[in-house]
TrEMBL record, chain A:
Entry's family note: Belongs to the WD repeat striatin family.
Gene: cash-1
Annotated Polar residues bias: 1-12
GO molecular function, one term: protein-macromolecule adaptor activity
Extent of Low complexity compositional bias: 102-119
Protein known as: Striatin N-terminal domain-containing protein
Subcellular location as annotated: Cytoplasm
Highest taxon listed in the record's lineage: Eukaryota
Listed Pfam families: Striatin (PF08232), WD40 (PF00400)
Sequence ranges assigned to domain Striatin N-terminal in this UniProt record: 25-161
GO cellular component: cytoplasm; FAR/SIN/STRIPAK complex
A biological-process GO annotation: regulation of signal transduction
Basic and acidic residues composition-biased segments: 270-281
Length: 681, 223
C-alpha cells in the first residue's frame, strides 16, 4: 500500500497543475497496478522474443565454433600423424638393422609386396596383432589411438560439412539444389583422399551400410584408384591401412558383433523417412507425387548423408575400439557432441532472424510484397498509405528526420481510408492496390533510390479502376496478359485490363448468395484458372476466360463456417493452399478438388500464407501474433517467430517471401513490418 | 474450439468485411482492452462512435498517462490528415499554390529537408505528413507506444504546429474541399480543441476559425 500511495503521489505531482483529481481511489490504484502489470507483461514478451533470437544466434555460433575447433584438432592430429609416421620409420629402420630381434609380422620391406604377407598375419589373429603392437612399443599403440581419432574426425568433419551445406541449402532453397549433394560428396572425398587411411574408411563404410553397398563400392574403387596414384613413398602406410580394413571387415563378418554399431537413431530415422515416402505415395495423386518425389530427392540424400556420416564416425570409433582391443577413453566427449548434434533438431535447421523493423506506418499494415528482384518492399496500411522501402538504402543525410532508421523511399497516396491489398507486376514496375474505398489504384513504381522528399509527380498514379461498390480485399496480377483480378466484399470478383479504355472486362458473381470473396490468386500450372476463397468456408477455381466455375474445393465436414482468409497457388504444382479463420491450413489437389492435408497450424486464425519460389517452404501468419515456417513436404513446423502485437484481435496480417533473395517479411496490426534473414547471414 | 471462445466477440476486420461493418463491433470498455495498443483502439472506437463528439474523443480514460494519450491522438490526426492530403492532390498543384501559405502573412518552409525548403503547398503537405510519420515512429524519440519519454513530448508540439498548416492552407485556398472534409471528419475542430487543451500551440497561430470562441474572436477583430 505504501508503494502504491507513493507512486500515485508522484503521479499526482506531475498532474497537479492539470486537474485536481481524487488522490487515492481504489480503482485508480488498481488500474495503475494493472497498467504496470500490462507493461511488465509486454516487456516480458519482448524480452522472450529477444531471448529466442539470441538463443538461435548462440546455437549458430556454437556450431561455428565446433567447426573451427574441429578443424584445429584435425590439423593438430595430422601433425601428430606425421610425427608418428616418422617414429614408425625410425622403428622400422631399427628393426631392419637389428634383424632377427623383431617378429616377422612387423618386418616390412620398402617394396609393395610386403603388404599382403602382413595382412595375412593380421587377419589370422587379433591377439597376435595386439601383442605385436605391445612389442613395437607404446608409440604404435598411441598411433592407433591417433588413427582411431582421425577416422572419427573424418566422419565428424564430414558431418559438420553436411550440417552446413544442409543449412545453406535450406535457407537458400533458391539455388539449384541438385548440385549440392554431389559437390559436397566431392569435398568429402577430397578430404578423405588427403589421408592415407581413406581406403580403410570407405571399406568400413561399405560394410556398415550394406543398403548402399553398391554405391559405396563405387566410391571405394574410385578412392582406391586415387590412393594408388597418391601412395608413392607412403606405401607401407597404405599397406597398414589395407590391413586395418581387412581386420575391420573380418570383425564385422563376425555374427556376434555384426551391426551392433548401427545405432537405433539411424534406424528410426530411416523408418520415418520411409514412412514419409509411403505417406506421399498413398496421399498424393500421381501428378503431384512425381514433383514431390523430385523435391524429396533433392532433399533426402543430403539429410541421409549427414545422418550416415555422423553414424559412420560413431560406428567407426566403436568398431575400431573393439577391433583394436581398446577401451573408450578421451574420445567420449567427441561422441557426445555427435549425439547432441544428432538429437537436437535445431542444429540442422535454418533459423530466420530479424534483420530490420520497418516503422513508418501509423496504423495496421494490411499487405506486403517484395520486389521480384531488388531488396525492395511494399507495404499497404490502414493509414491509407502504401510505402516503398529500399532495404539496402544508405542513410541519406539530406533529411531532417533525426534518426538512423530505415525510412520509406516513397509514399503512395491514392486511397481514401485503409488500403487492404496490393500486388506488383512481374517486373516490379507497376503496383496495384485495393482499398476499403472500393477503388484499385494503378501506380508506376518510382525509383527505389529516389529522394523520399522529392516533389509530387501526379503521373505516379496512372489510373484508378472504379466499379466495385465495397471494400477490395484481394488483388492478383496475371503475369502473361497484364490483367488484374480483384475480390471485393460487394460479392464480386472482377477482371480488369489496366490501360485499356474500358478496363473492366468481366464481373464474376459469388457462387452462392451471402458469401463474399476474400482472396484470389492465379493457378501457376494453368494460367487461365483463378483461385478464389470466400467467407463461409468456400473456395473454387474459376476459368477467367469464361467466368465459369472449374472446380469447387471440397472442405468435407467443417464446424461452423469459418472465413477462408488466404488462398495461394503452389508455384510449380497443381496444389492450392488455404489459410482459414479456423486456425487451419488446408492443402487441396487442383485436379479433383479434394483435401490432401489439413492441420491446425496456429493458436488463432491464419491470416496469411506465402510459399517460397521453389515451393518447398510455407510461411504462415496468424492473429496469435506469430509467423511460422513450414516444410511443405513434411508439413512440419521448422520455426516459429513471435512477430507482431495485437491491436483489437488482429496481429499478423501479411507474410511474404522475397522471390529471389533470402528474405522473408511479416506485417502486422501493430503498424510494423519486419524483414528477416536466414541465420547464416 | 470451445463454446466460450466461439461466443466471444472477435474484434477483427477480416477479409470479406463490408465497409459498413468496418470496426463495427460492440464497444469495449477501456479497462477491458488488454492489448498494448489500447489507447489507439480506444481513440478509434470513440471516433467511430461519433466523430463530431470532439469533447468525448478528447477525454482520456481515468488515470491515463497523458504523454501516451497526446502521442496517440497526434498519430490519429496524421492518419486522418492523409485523407485531406489525398483531396489536396486533386487540386492543389504547384501552378496555383507555389508556396505553402495560409493568409498572406507567412510563407512556411518545409522542415522535412535538412535545409528548410520552400516547397510548393502539395509537397509541403506530403513531406510534412511523411516526416511526421517518421518522427512519430522514431526509435530515438518514441521507442515505445506505452511509455513516452518526457523529453519527447516537446516533439509533439512541433509536429502539431507543422501539420496544422495543412488545415490552414486548405481552409484559405481550397475552402470547398476543406468543408467537404471537415463536414465528414470534424478533424480540424478536433485538432484545434486538442492543441488548445494540451497547450501544444499558441492561440494566435490557430488561424482557422473553427471553434465558436475563435469565430467570435474573428468577428470582433473584423468589427
Ligand atoms: Zn493549395
Ligand atoms: Zn518539402
Amino acid at each position: 500500500m505504501e508503494d502504491a500511495s507513493q507512486l500515485s503521489n508522484s503521479q499526482n505531482d506531475k498532474a497537479k497543475d492539470e486537474t485536481t483529481r481524487p488522490q487515492y481511489t481504489m480503482s485508480g490504484i488498481l488500474h495503475f497496478i494493472q497498467h504496470e502489470w500490462t507493461k511488465n507483461e509486454l516487456d516480458r514478451t519482448r524480452w522472450e522474443a529477444e531471448r529466442a533470437e539470441m538463443q538461435a544466434r548462440i546455437a549458430f555460433l556454437q556450431g561455428e565454433r565446433k567447426g573451427q575447433e574441429n578443424l584445429k584438432q584435425d590439423l593438430v592430429r595430422r601433425i601428430k600423424m606425421l610425427e608418428f609416421c616418422l617414429k614408425q620409420e625410425r622403428a622400422k629402420n631399427y628393426r631392419l638393422t637389428h634383424n632377427g630381434e623383431e617378429p616377422p609380422s612387423l618386418e616390412e620391406s620398402p617394396n609393395e609386396n610386403s603388404a599382403p604377407s602382413e595382412n595375412s598375419h593380421l587377419t589370422a589373429d587379433l591377439d597376435a596383432y595386439i601383442n605385436d603392437a605391445g612389442e613395437a612399443g607404446g608409440s604404435f599403440r598411441q598411433g592407433r589411438l591417433l588413427l582411431k581419432r582421425y577416422l572419427e574426425e573424418i566422419g565428424y568433419s564430414e558431418h559438420i560439412m553436411d550440417v552446413r551445406s544442409f543449412r545453406v541449402k535450406n535457407l537458400l532453397g533458391l539455388l539449384p539444389q541438385a548440385d549440392l549433394p554431389s559437390s559436397e560428396r566431392l569435398n568429402g572425398r577430397k578430404e578423405k583422399s588427403d589421408s592415407n587411411y581413406s581406403d580403410s574408411d570407405d571399406g568400413h563404410d561399405d560394410a556398415a551400410l550394406d543398403a548402399d553397398a553398391s554405391k559405396a563400392f563405387e566410391e571405394f574403387d574410385f578412392l582406391n584408384n586415387m590412393d594408388a596414384k597418391e601412395k608413392g613413398s607412403d606405401d607401407d602406410w597404405a599397406g597398414k591401412g589395407a590391413s586395418f580394413e581387412k581386420l575391420i571387415k573380418q570383425y564385422k563378418d563376425d555374427p556376434k558383433v555384426k551391426r551392433r554399431s548401427r545405432t537405433s537413431t539411424e534406424e528410426s530415422e530411416e523408418k520415418t523417412s520411409n514412412d514419409v515416402q509411403k505417406n506421399l505415395e498413398t496421399d498424393v495423386p500421381p501428378g503431384i507425387r512425381s514433383a514431390i518425389d523430385a523435391a524429396a530427392q533433392e532433399e533426402l540424400p543430403v539429410r541421409r548423408q549427414g545422418r550416415r556420416s555422423a553414424n559412420f564416425g560413431y560406428g567407426n570409433g566403436n568398431e575400431l575400439d573393439v577391433a583394436l582391443g581398446m577401451q573408450d577413453n578421451d574420445n567420449m566427449d567427441i561422441k557426445d557432441e555427435f549425439k547432441d548434434e544428432d538429437d537436437d533438431p535445431n542444429a540442422q535447421q535454418v533459423k530466420w532472424n530479424i534483420k530490420v523493423t520497418l516503422r513508418s506506418h501509423l496504423d495496421s499494415i494490411r499487405a506486403m510484397q517484395f520486389h521480384p528482384v531488388e531488396p525492395v518492399l511494399f507495404t499497404a496500411s490502414e493509414d491509407g498509405l502504401i510505402k516503398l522501402w529500399n532495404l539496402d538504402q544508405k542513410k541519406d543525410e539530406k533529411h531532417n528526420s533525426g534518426g538512423t532508421e530505415l525510412e520509406p523511399v516513397y509514399t503512395f497516396r491514392g486511397h481514401k481510408g485503409p488500403v487492404l491489398c496490393l500486388v506488383l507486376s512481374p517486373t516490379g514496375d507497376h503496383l496495384y492496390t485495393g482499398g476499403i474505398d472500393g477503388n484499385i489504384c494503378c501506380f508506376n513504381v518510382p525509383s527505389s533510390n529516389g529522394d523520399p522528399f522529392d516533389s509530387y509527380d501526379p503521373r505516379v498514379l496512372t489510373e484508378t479502376l472504379t466499379g466495385h461498390t465495397d471494400a477490395i480485399w484481394s488483388v492478383a496480377y496475371h503475369s502473361s496478359n497484364s490483367r488484374l483480378v480483384s475480390a471485393s466484399s460487394d460479392s464480386t470478383v472482377r477482371l480488369w485490363e489496366p490501360g485499356n479504355g474500358e478496363p473492366l472486362i468481366r464481373t464474376i458473381g459469388a457462387p452462392k448468395s451471402g458469401i463474399l470473396p476474400t482472396s484470389v490468386d492465379f493457378v501457376s500450372t494453368e494460367t487461365s484458372h483463378l483461385l478464389a476463397a470466400y467467407t463461409n468456408c468456400y473456395a473454387q477455381i474459376i476459368d477467367i476466360d469464361t467466368g465459369s466455375t472449374v472446380m469447387v474445393f471440397d472442405f468435407g465436414a467443417v464446424t461452423g463456417s469459418p472465413t477462408m482468409n488466404k488462398i495461394v497457388s503452389h508455384p510449380t504444382m497443381p496444389l492450392t493452399l488455404i489459410g482459414g479463420e479456423d486456425r487451419t491450413i488446408r492443402y487441396f489437389d487442383n485436379t479433383n478438388g479434394s483435401i490432401i492435408h489439413e492441420a491446425i497450424a496456429h493458436v488463432e486464425g491464419v491470416s496469411s500464407l506465402a510459399i517460397d519460389p521453389n515451393g518447398l517452404y510455407l510461411l504462415s501468419g496468424s492473429h496469435d501474433g506469430s509467423i511460422r515456417m513450414w516444410n511443405m513436404e513434411k508439413r512440419s513446423c521448422l520455426q516459429e517467430i513471435s512477430a507482431h502485437r495485437k491491436k483489437n484481435d488482429s496481429a499478423v496480417t501479411s507474410v511474404a517471401f522475397h522471390p529471389s533473395r533470402s528474405l522473408i517479411g511479416s506485417a502486422g496490426a501493430d503498424s510494423l513490418a519486419k524483414v528477416y534473414v536466414s541465420g547464416s547471414n | 474450439m470451445t463454446a466460450a471462445t466461439e461466443n466471444r466477440t472477435v474484434r477483427r476486420n477480416g477479409p470479406g468485411t463490408k465497409r459498413a461493418d468496418w470496426n463495427n463491433w460492440s464497444p469495449l470498455a477501456f479497462e477491458e482492452m488488454d492489448s498494448a495498443l489500447n489507447i489507439q483502439q480506444y481513440i478509434q472506437q470513440t471516433i467511430k462512435a461519433n466523430p463530431a463528439d470532439v469533447a468525448t474523443i478528447l477525454t482520456p480514460p481515468l488515470d491515463q498517462d497523458e504523454g501516451v494519450w497526446k502521442y496517440e491522438h497526434l498519430r490519429q490526426f496524421c492518419i486522418e490528415l492523409n485523407g485531406l492530403a489525398l483531396l489536396l492532390q486533386r487540386e492543389c498543384i504547384p501552378e496555383t499554390c507555389q508556396q505553402m501559405t495560409a493568409t498572406e502573412q507567412w510563407i512556411f518552409l518545409c522542415a522535412a529537408h535538412k535545409n528548410p525548403n520552400e516547397c510548393p503547398a502539395i509537397d509541403y503537405t506530403r513531406h510534412t505528413l511523411d516526416g511526421a510519420a517518421t518522427l512519430l515512429n522514431s526509435n530515438k524519440y518514441f521507442p515505445s507506444r506505452v511509455n513516452i519519454k518526457e523529453i519527447s513530448i516537446s516533439k509533439l508540439g512541433s509536429v502539431a504546429r507543422r501539420v496544422y498548416r495543412i488545415f490552414s492552407h486548405a481552409f484559405f485556398h481550397h475552402r470547398k474541399l476543406f468543408d467537404e472534409f471537415e463536414n465528414e471528419t470534424h478533424l480540424c475542430k478536433r485538432f484545434t480543441t486538442y492543441v488548445s487543451k494540451y497547450n501544444l500551440m499558441q492561440q494566435e497561430h490557430l488561424i482557422v476559425p473553427i471553434l465558436p470562441n475563435q469565430q467570435q474572436q474573428q468577428q470582433t477583430t473584423v468589427q
